[in-house]
Amino acid sequence: QVQLMESGGGVVQPGGSLRLSCAASGFNLGDFGMHWVRQAPGKGLEWMAVMTYDGKSEYHIEYAKGRFNISRDISKNVLHLQMNNLRSEDTAIYYCARIHRSGWDYLDSWGQGTLVTVSS
Amino acid sequence: EVVLTQSPATLSLSPGESATLSCRASQSVVRYIAWYQQKSGQAPRLLIYEASRRASGIPARFRGSGSGTDFTLTISSLEPEDFAVYYCQHRYNWPLTFGGGTKVEIK
Question: What is the mean pLDDT of chain A?
Fold first, then answer.
């Protein structure tokens, strides 16, 4: 059974950093591309970043480049999102999601999300 | 960046009625569109991918159609559990983007 469990969220001051983790079970990260998607309170979904199944490529939303970085630890089957220089507008629930078994970038398994609050 | 515009923002319907949701892309995305359902306090759930393919376990009352720039999600005979927010998403290029969502509420 595919399961994704995010952790690492919390309250952080503007300018601070957080590292989110997404523990995967029921499949190997090396076999599937993985994404981070966020949702600000009361707002819609916003794609943030992807790492391809082979780990060779990663893409980030333009305004997060240089601040956010996606990575993974294959040995632990964990995906990460390092977030630096956080701003109030980064306040959101952050979800990790696995791509569809077809290999296309549709997100068919999601974690429950972890809440990041950026506030002084 | 491909901009996805969903309409209407809110759809007020009664159980048993049909819902028609629209997603319009700012450029052709071929058929590279998915639809998701999100209920309050839950993560999104994939319903439809590649414009018209139902994801695993999704009931047949959910039907996707369209190509190019115009896509539709039709929910025939709404069940009580179908009242939720629906998002479209493309995979045509980076960045992936989502539409702003359509809320299907009970009339």
Answer: 96
Rounded distance between C-alpha atoms, residue B70 and residue A79, angstroms: 34
pLDDT digits (tens, 9 = 90+) for A31-76: 999 999 999 999 999 999 999 999 898 899 988 888 999 999 999 9
Chain-chain contact of A59 with B95 (C-beta, under 8 angstroms)? yes
Q: How far is B12 from chain A (nearest CA, A)?
A: 19
The pLDDT value recorded for residue A63 is 85
Token digits of residue B37: 């359902």
**Inter-chain contact B98–A112, Cβ cutoff 8 Å?**
no
Say if residue B8 is preceded by a cis peptide, omega within 30 of 0: yes
Q: Do A107 and B44 touch (CB under 8 A)?
A: yes
Residues of A in contact with B34 (CB under 8 A): 106-107
